[in-house]
Amino acid sequence: MGRHKVLNTPAIRRMPTYFHKLVLMQQAHEEVVSTTVLAKYMGLEPIIVRKDFELTGVKGQPGIGYKTHELIEAIRSYLGWDACKKACLVGAGSLGSALLGYQEFSEYGMLFTDVFDADPEKIDTRIHGHLVRDVRQMTPRLRQARPDIGIICVPAIHAQAVVDDMIACGVRAFWNFSNLCLQVPPNVVVQREVIAGGLALLSMKLKTHDII
Amino acid sequence: MGRHKVLNTPAIRRMPTYFHKLVLMQQAHEEVVSTTVLAKYMGLEPIIVRKDFELTGVKGQPGIGYKTHELIEAIRSYLGWDACKKACLVGAGSLGSALLGYQEFSEYGMLFTDVFDADPEKIDTRIHGHLVRDVRQMTPRLRQARPDIGIICVPAIHAQAVVDDMIACGVRAFWNFSNLCLQVPPNVVVQREVIAGGLALLSMKLKTHDII
DNA sequence: TAGATTGTTAATCGATTAACAATC
DNA sequence: TAGATTGTTAATCGATTAACAATC
């Protein structure tokens, strides 16, 4: 039912942060980097960073560190960010717009090829350069465009219906920003972002540290 | 340095999803709920849900299930969502606007008391009912308003400076949506949301399932 | 040489899963 | 009674952490 164990989840979640920092460091002409430096930046222990890098298969030089560009490419390849992924975003509200504006996604191999919304005010306008189309034209378009990823930013009531439509068009992977757990067949994968999950963790930290 | 272990992190991340679903079920007058039903909805094993509920201290009835309203209150109390938290959001771009529009946050005990931005076009307008103020007025206002949480939605280049200012005003907890790891003193907690972390996981699922 | 770092193996810790009696 | 469910203890699995030799 779209729930498939991914090993090393915590490590995978850390990868983009390494990646982003490493790109900044490379731009600053720092050609070698140690786990000590990255760990300090991220508030981790160096051994964690070392073990994470081991997963990507990259090799460092004892006493020296890792070559920045080798690390970047190792992480990119490990995450599959060297492959181009066509994404179709549905729901161009504030959150959808925010995602459309993230320049970094193209660095991560994801390209917005289609954007749909139901609001007549938005249809045929451009958001961050992306043309917003009428969601009623979605099915015929997607059968041609064949996106790899569906990004769900519609209100909760519409989420499941939109996903069902997209699955019918052959979409097999979803990034779900809605409040609901989507019900999908076993050959379809879903990554759900739970914004309230972060708030829950922050709330626990507030408690633990007697901030509130 | 603002990095403090929180136990049961995976369970805590699942709590808001239980919570949200339970509220919907209560509105549908489903007064009793079993872990089987919730697990199926979320794509988990029932034992996981049972263990999670155990953390909150709630008790179910063998053979029957849990009382919906008891579960809701148990989770709310466990997460500290019964305490009111004043939040100050800085950076009213698309992402900031999306957060300001999340009605659910008040259910979770978080109230937006202040919103700041640097863009003259936005200053003195209202976004989802919240007045946007000039970020240059932030310090004097915060010394009075004393928010519990700072929500960072500003561009990366400004994030650290904004946080430093807020810490000087006594803010000790941050929800960081910027691309950077904020450097903060040990008595300050940070919860960082890494949107690209979700994409990394989705990318790995694509790989594993030969979708791309 | 001394200090910093990686690579690797082993130890520990915590989260998930299994098993099953007790209850409705 | 049979079936569904919780509560609880134990087993397993995976992630983090420790330790230390090897390298620069």
Describe the fold and architecture.
Chains A, B: Residues 80-181 form the CoA-binding domain. Chains A, B: This is Redox-sensing transcriptional repressor Rex. Two copies of one chain form a homodimer. Chain A is of the alpha/beta class. The first copy, chain A, has two domains: 9-78, Orthogonal Bundle (Arc Repressor Mutant, subunit A); 85-196, Rossmann fold (3-Layer(aba) Sandwich), CATH 3.40.50. The first copy, chain A, is built from nine helices and nine strands. In chain A, the strands form two sheets. The first copy, chain A, has a seven-stranded mixed beta sheet. In chain A, strand 7, helix 8 and strand 8 (173-176) form a beta-alpha-beta unit. The longest helix of chain A is centred in the N-terminal third of the chain and has 19 residues, at 9-27. At the A-B interface, helix 1, helix 5 and helix 9 of A face helix 1, helix 5 and helix 9 of B. The structure holds a DNA duplex (24 and 24 nucleotides).
